[in-house]
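Running log. JK asked me to keep both predictions on one page so they can be read side by side. First protein, sequence followed by its tokens:
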Amino acid sequence: MATKITRDVIESSLNCRYKGHLKLAGEQGSPSDYEQLMRESREQVRLAATAKLLARHKEGEVLRGLTMTLAVLRRGVPLLLDATVEDEEFCIRLDALQRADGSSRLGNFHYMPVLFHEAERPARKLRALLELLGLVLGSIQGRPPSWGVLLYGRNCEVKRFRLRPNVQQTRRTMEAIKEIQCAETTPRLTLNSHCQVCEFRHRCNAEATAKDDLSLLRSVGEKEIRKYELRGIFTVTQLSYTFRPRKRSKRQRQQKQPHYPALQALAIRDKKIYVLGTPDLPASPVRIYFDIEGDPERGFDYLLGLIIEANGVEERLSFWADTPAEEQRVFQQFLDVVGRYPDCRLYAYGNYEAAFLRRMVKESGRQELSEHLLPRLVNILSVVHAHVYFPTYSNGLKDIAGYLGVRWTAADASGVQSIVWRRRWEETGSAAFKDLLTTYNLEDCVALQKVTRCLYALYPGVPTTDGAVSHEGPEVSRVEEATFQSRMHGWNQAMYAVPDFGYISDRAYFDYQRERVFVRTNKAVRKSQGRHRSRQGKKDTRANRHIELSSQECPSCGGTALTRRPHRSLARLAFDLRLTRSGIKRWVTRFTTAWHHCTGCGTRFLPGDYLRLEEFGHSLKSWAMYEYVAHRASLANIADTIRQCFDMPIHGPQVSAFKQLLAQYYEGTYKRLLEKLVAGGLIHGDETEVNVRQVGKAYVWVFTNLEEVVFLYRPSREGDFLHDLLKDFKGVFVSDFYAAYDSLGCEQQKCLIHLLRDFNQDLLANPWDEELKSIASDFGGLLRRIVATIDRYGLRRRHLGKHRRDVDKFFRTILGQAYRSEAAESYRQRLVKYRARLFTFLDHDGVPWNNNNAEHAVKAFAYYREVADSMITEVGLNQYLVLLSVYQTCKYKGVSFLQFLLSRETDIDVFRKSSSRRRAVPDIELYTEDILLPRPSHGRLRTTGSLESNGSAGKGHTWGGDLLTIRVS
């Protein structure tokens, strides 16, 4: 027969499931001094609390020491003390039961549990314990109590807890304890923070060490351990082989350095110290190492020890407080010492000392101290946590200093043990306990001093003092050097241990050998190189058209008495493309002019039209950006294609300038698209990651309906900008389950495809979870019926409204179920949380039930990200997103993106309406506009050579043989 569940078993299970198993198995450990102290304190609290309750009731209103049955409870006495619940599974003694109003199986009253506890502060676990006791009590009286009462601490303070209305979590906890009671297999051993005071601490630590268990690493929690186990990693040694350093961007270097458990495991495996990055260790001629002992539960700090290093002299001090009232005196003594050294630095290990200083400053009312005291404090633990990995299982001061050779006088010295010594001193007043505490405190300061000196020695570039010594002893390795010696940086860029290897390798590259070696020994290579050089930097001057520019008036005085000097003519070439139905042709225009001289004011000038000529036309820019956006060709490849196919003198930076110019040109189009989205009745939203050069991880957001698409860049995933962006939006917003969307004020439809994917993934991961299968099956059946209606009638609410009853029935079903499966319960909570946003489409016309429109738009950027990730800048990305928004909108509207760019139109809807009626434009008009004049002017254009025309001159054009005069207004 299994051992019965007692209150001790329940408390042990709340702290550690493995401890609960050991208790049920009848195991006996060696209680620590702290645990023994807590037992004594609980007995004192029990006596004081019992007396306090008895003083509030008359003699006939209290029953004591009875077994709790239905008959006893029906007697309805106001107070039951030391009541015991016993059946086949339980044997639990409740400290007290207090009668409360409210109907139950007992009548028009019921009982609520009263708990006595030694803790000085009400912790979350005490509330959980009360809920479990309330669950046991509710099984007898037919109603779970709504409240529980806690009497805690030496002063027997009273705290009332409202017990959880939804008892599902409490029931799952109780079921887990019952499984431990009945199961043949033992729960997994996982070391945690309770181990330092547990009676089984030595047994569990030895077992974990023998298995090389992951929980030996104190920086790894239970959730992380479960994630590692899913990857097949169960031991510290296995974890050590997974460390791979990550290259950090400039933005990440400004952030806090993360801690890598895998690197900690590697340090343990290799038995060496690993150093990662460079910490901020300040230089100071005076160092003060200090450590504080206190009782955290009582919020009382009673001992402050210091070691002062100044000019090669060391001084040790201790400040003691008998009562909490003397804390300010200890603080003032500390300030007096620090005040003697205005240029000193304060060193502590952890945040406890910083919290003490902040509390003392606040209580003293001297806020000016925080500006002079706290900035001088250096937390050594934060440096170790981020940058130095010692071969120890934790970053505790005892572990690291012990590894460096520091020893404590008391074998069991620890922070928990210091609480025991202090309380024993308070009980007995013995000087022996005070000496133990003072010695322990100063030895902690010595340990802090040792660790700090070690850190300064590990970083030779950091200034040190006379007290610091060079690091000797344990082997030290820098992560950057140890990891990247054999790694490649980019393509064919390796680091070589022998400099001669690098010299030899550099001369083995293809370009080097072809240009410096083969060109001297091979005639064919020499000829090809010569031809290549002869073509570099030369423009093909053959022009399709020649135009002469002249000015009719002086830009200075406006006079028309001008003379020209034809013998001193100037020329410029303008390159463009002519796109026809049958192909693409290069089109070169040669513009010539001469210096003009005004006889009135004597000014010598060139025509303004000549000075404002652009080298490349709009059609060339449009075709280049069409290739860049639609076909994701790189700017360098586009430039190479133009050079090879059209023989134009163009390079990558010039194509990049095309992107900037067209992005500016279509900025108004981009803004109009966004305005149309916000003014409409439907928006799909999604986001995706991108790595931006010199920034790191950033995000691109997409917003779309069935026609317009807008891409936005943001440096982070924070969704605060959504409120300003969509403040005037009154329609339905379709999105995934990212929390940033939840706070939007408009109606929302969550993507049910995302939910189905999550369901499917967890079902595959938990193939035997019948409760999860039940929820998924019911939800799948409901959605299938709705989708069948959509297939038949479309997204029309008059046909979809009939499914509202099915939706309500589904939610009533899951709300009435009690799920033991964690996965099933999480989905139940998720469905209930988003109930109002899962089926919004049933009440609207034309609102989809999924976010595929946004996902499809995101794919366009995802394809581009494959070739541009980590290489594009913020400015370049913003320019690209303007063009991508126009491209995707054209695609959604069924408009040719290339034709839209060539048309120079900025409104896509206007272009779509006019494209069917648009007449053929004379080539001479189109390709002259592409090159000419960004702002109005007056001038004459003289052309020679053959001209093509459709038989009619455009507006403002006059034909006269081979002379074309164009007046620009």
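And the second, directly underneath as requested:
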Amino acid sequence: MNYADLFRVTLPETALEVAALVALIVDLGFLRKAALKTRVAVAALLGVAGCGAAIWAIALQTGFGLYVGESLVLANGGGTAVAQIGILILTALTLLLLIDSDFTRHVGEYVAVVLMAAAGGLVVAAARDLLVIFVGLELLSLGLYILTAFAKRSGKSAEAAMKYYLFGGMSAAFLLFGFSYLYGLSGSTNLYRIQYSIGETGASPLLYVAWVLIVAGLGFKVAAVPFHLWAPDTYEGAPAPAAAFIASVSKVASFALLLTISGNLLMPGGSISGARQTVESYLRNEYQTWQSLAAILLIVAAASMVVGNLAALAQVSVRRLLAYSAIAHAGYILLGVAVQRTYTGQGSSFAFFLTTTGPAFRSANAVLYYVLTYGLTTIGAFGVVAVVERATGSDRMDSFLGLHKRNPVLAAVLLVLFLSLAGIPPLVGFWAKFNLFAAVLGVSAGAVPFGLVALAVAMSAVSLYYYLQVLKRAYVMSGVDETPIKAHPATLAVLVGIAAAVVVLGCFPALLQGWIASFYPAH
């Protein structure tokens, strides 16, 4: 490795850091005495330009990533590029929602922190080494803690940030402890070398301990049960653009990392050679290891689906409702993460299917499809909530009473986004769930996968109820105050664009599926 290779691979992150520096210089050096709205608009547009430059840098990347010796440290292309471009697009959308916000006067600092956190997300999505993963996660997490506390005049914001920080510190300790066990088992911090070592020596009790600790650490990042307690307070207390960033960008980066780690630990490594009996014995042992590790993810997934949806039924705050909805969606996505490997066995014949066209590959693609569309929809939902909250002073469900009369466009956007989150066709949320559940059933046959998919479908029906509670207030129930709710033209344009994308991608699901597939080489 040399510094030219390092710069080439980290060019997208460098573009974001340069944009963060430029936003600070322009805001603090040239626009200190300008009107707040002007400073917000300029800082947000500079941040969006930085995201655009980073996407262009990803398009220029060639090769297979950054190697130290023979160990891959940072990957590019394939699912990594999909996740990174998704992170950048979602970051740009959250920055555009900032234009109509007034929760802080330190707009240059806010945009800089957003861009640096997004750079951490890019590192997380590309990392293939435990040390690099941890550095990327800390860069992302520290930015999220700061963004949560950015509304300095809000007590809820400070309280949410403190809870988020304390829970985050504990999750980092669990994750680092699990990583140390993996290093002790393999003698390496590289994921592929760890995979090879485990494949050669077989699973040990310490591997299961390490996996439980890693699931605990990353379960916090994606707000999965029982590591979800920070999410409702954070979603409620953080400024709306920051909450949208946490609910979307952080999710994409974290699930990309989960796909990477579980894809290595839940797939066979090492060499498979020798007599047929030896090979079959190896595959049997590998299958047993996979079953045990995947079972932990499936338990967390089932708990997240049930707790998230049932707890959302009792909420009166739309922000907290979206938080519990996020917990439930994390459960759905974890189903796809847990079944990235196809295994068939009958009698003495065993085989693994790990090609880039098989069901396991479709499962990983379905996870990326789901998390990207969920992130897009959630940003729009928080944008609508932010507009209503600024007009009424509250995010309670009753604040949405008569919304279709007070702002018909905003009500229509809310209708599209909430029905998509519930999985109603022909919106993109339906196809996200359909692809994911079909991939789970295609990879793993049996009563357990079928039962979990049936549970997911039932919980999706439950989620429709609480989404309709908000929509009923917006469209059916009359409000006491019928004063029109006005939204900034830029904010309204972004929200309408998001809703239009949700409809178009739902009517033509092959658009996004084909785009994701285009990042993989043809076989």
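Observation for JK regarding the second prediction: The longest strand covers residues 342-346.
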